Amino acid sequence: EEQCLALAKVLGGVCIIQKGPEDYISQGKTTTTCDFEGGLKRSGGQGDTLTGSLGTFLAWREAYHEGLWEVKEPKMSRAETLLVAAFAGSAITRECSRRAFEKRQRSLQASDLTEEVHEAFLGIVGEPDTKSNL
Is the pLDDT score of 128 beyond 80? Predict the structure, then answer.
């Protein structure tokens, strides 16, 4: 956790996700932990699910800061929303991995995570006008 924070600081505040049994996420100011249950098998290519999720949440983050949606004041800072976007990407990926492993066990391949994205998103984030699990 401390290494993640230190590296993010040294690199000028970029956001780091240190994957492991728990994911440490830091932008050099604050560190948060994603300890959602994941699958018990790793396979090459699972990072593609993380990257796609991060890209989506980071785009929504930018839209939030540009005022695309009406939100209650006070608005979250860019540093805060960077952690939220990274946490959400990590959580979605872990949930996809958990769900895919539950179905496919040791035959799991990274592509199996893709089939779980929608349900993982609904379970963690939900839809507008529904309660989020984050």
Answer: no
